[in-house]
Specification:
2 domains; 13 helices; about 55% helix; about 400 residues; two-stranded antiparallel ribbon; alpha+beta
């Protein structure tokens, strides 16, 4: 222990003798450690935002989209069921046993007008189960009913962004708005969900699916079917049940490919998370290059130090110092220099992460394991790049070293 204390004292004394040079030498390590921690923190923060955004889409959600997933790339032909109707929704709703909710979804983009104000937004035609599937709540008014859907009633629920743009601070319940010149009565305002990486979840209007399909789009085909499984444990079984019901409704023979695609919340989360993880690794790898560059800087300055202290090394060897003592001394200096850079880099990373969280839209998640790994790696860089100069110092010939000018 005493020997280690003496080594550290000598190392710090040598480093402090040339403060500016030591700081510049450590700069590569400082930047490298800081960059690795911040880049990974940003990547993990983005991943957390994606997962939260997808979770906010609904509970145990399953989406069924018309058209086969692209595996072979061949078209199914004119006689195939590549589109959904309300009959498909009813086939699932009436016969499925593992579901909490089923809703048709019809999408449109339209300009909404109220008085002299107008706003371009997404219109979603949905059934009443959609509120349960997507966990919607109401700030003002009330949800529309199943009778409103069946009677194609022209009523609408507006998101908070639409409410702010068209009505400001007043309660819009009961007011008339025009969507594609069709008058709709506002019966409620949806509770704010906020801005996420999936977009603004408050910039939308919900109306009965039949009203949007027949009165706004003038079509007979719905865009998708949104479903919620009764329990998280039932999601896989629910997929199988939905697939079986739709194959039967579309009269698909055994061996024929599905003419629809089923996506679950978990699949969307996994795909988005995989992309985020790949980007995090790439960012971390790029930032890690600066650690290597910092290590090269340490090797360079230690070689310079060996040259400058050649006579000192010769004197120590001549009075009995062993090769191992010289090796340990110079190696400890390289390690201490690297670890000091690592500590400064960690402090900078924490400060920068706090600034990014508080003053930008970026979210960072500091991982203690990543911080520990970055610090450990900075020490490893000091050992790896400090060994060669230390070895060179330890193997100097004492006589040649004493003669060195």
């Amino acid at each position: 222990m005493k020997r280690l204390t003496n080594l550290l004292k000598v190392a710090f004394k040598s480093i402090l003798k040339n403060r500016m040079r030591s700081l510049l030498t450590s700069l590569g390590i400082i930047i490298g450690v800081c960059a690795v921690i911040v880049m990974i923190a940003v990547g993990q923060g983005s991943q957390a935002q994606i997962e939260e955004s997808i979770a906010s889409l609904g509970t145990n959600m399953i989406m069924v989209i018309p058209g086969a997933s692209s595996r072979g790339g061949a078209s199914r032909g004119a006689g195939s069921y590549n589109r959904f109707t309300f009959d498909d929704t009813e086939a699932i709703r009436e016969n499925a046993t593992l579901l909490a909710g089923v809703s048709s979804v019809v999408r449109a983009v339209a300009q909404v007008i109220y008085g002299s104000s107008n706003w371009n937004t997404q219109i979603y035609g949905v059934d009443t189960d959609y509120f349960l599937i997507r966990n919607y709540e109401i700030t003002f008014g009330d949800f529309f009913t199943e009778r409103d859907v069946l009677s194609r009633k022209k009523v609408a629920l507006i998101g908070q962004t639409v409410a702010d743009e068209l009505f400001g601070d007043i309660d819009p319940t009961g007011e008339l708005i025009r969507i594609r010149n069709t008058p709709f009565t506002v019966i409620g305002v949806l509770k704010e969900k906020g801005q996420t990486v999936m977009g603004n979840q408050d910039d939308l209007i919900l109306a009965p699916s039949t009203t949007v399909l027949y009165r706004l789009k003038g079509s007979q085909f719905i865009d998708m079917i949104s479903i919620s499984a009764a329990d998280e444990d039932y999601i896989e079984a629910a997929q199988t049940e939905i697939s079986s019901l739709l194959r039967e409704a579309h009269r698909l023979n055994p061996g024929e490919d599905d003419d629809f695609t089923i996506r679950t919340q978990d699949e969307i989360t996994d795909a988005a998370s995989q992309t985020s993880q790949t980007m995090t690794l790439l960012l971390g790898a790029v930032a890690g290059v600066s650690l290597i560059v910092g290590g090269i800087g340490i090797m360079n300055i230690m070689l310079v130090s060996v040259t400058e202290r050649t006579r000192e090394i010769g004197i120590r060897l001549s009075v009995g110092a062993r090769t191992r003592d010289i090796l340990t001394q110079f190696l400890s200096e390289a390690i201490v220099l690297s670890l000091i850079g690592g500590i400064i880099g960690i402090l900078l990373a924490i400060g920068l992460s706090i600034l990014l969280n508080n003053f930008t839209d970026l979210r960072t998640v500091l991982n203690p394991l990543v911080i520990l790994m970055a610090f450990s790696f900075s020490g490893a860089v000091g050992i790896f790049f400090g060994y060669y100069p230390a070895r060179k110092a330890a193997t100097l010939n004492p006589i040649d070293a004493l003669r060195y000018e």
